[in-house]
Description:
Elements: H1 9-20, H2 26-33, H3 35-46, H4 64-76, H5 98-111, H6 127-146, H7 152-180, H8 184-216
Helix pairs in contact: 1-6, 6-7, 7-8
Amino acid sequence: MEGAGSIPPVSQVYLFLGKCFSYPQDELYALLKDERIGEEFRALVEELPFTVNFKGIPSPRLPQEELESAYINSFDIGFGPSLPCPLYESAYREDTSSRDITEELLRFYEHFDVRLSDKEKDYPDHLVVELEFMAYLAKKEADAEQRGNDPDPYRRAQLDFLERHLDKWAFKLDEKVQKRIKEPFYQGASAFLREVLSNHLPYLRKSVGHQVDAAKGP
Length: 218
């Protein structure tokens, strides 16, 4: 994904979670195996504007080649029910069609001048793309605040995107990961994603609600 100073903690957390569910190439694998990353990430989580119960994300247990194979076999071969844990929203939504999901996601991205990478052939409903988009919106919110502009449109966008997309399927993905994936790293990353969404969503609802109340006046 293309489009996006300092990066706020919310953005960094979503970006890191996106990395966790990306293909574990050399640089990423080395990052995930670095023990210092766990400590730095824990400190970052403490800076979030909402409370989460962070139990840690274990380093990958498998050697890199085996982790690559596990990733492909778990997340990336084919598409559909035969895949243990597909990372696509349309694989979990029974309330709407894949076409409608894709069209709505593209409208979201285009509205905020975000385009998918032609090089990586991103799918609009891939988990990593959706997490990177949340990171982008959170950064736009922080940038607006720093410049003295109204950050509320970006808060509303995050709330809308979570409610209409990630909140509709990330919990179902986590259930599959915990049951079907043996690698503790993916279990930990998925559980933490669920924890972040469970707490970020009510935080945004409260924040946006306060903005509405303030706009109405006494």
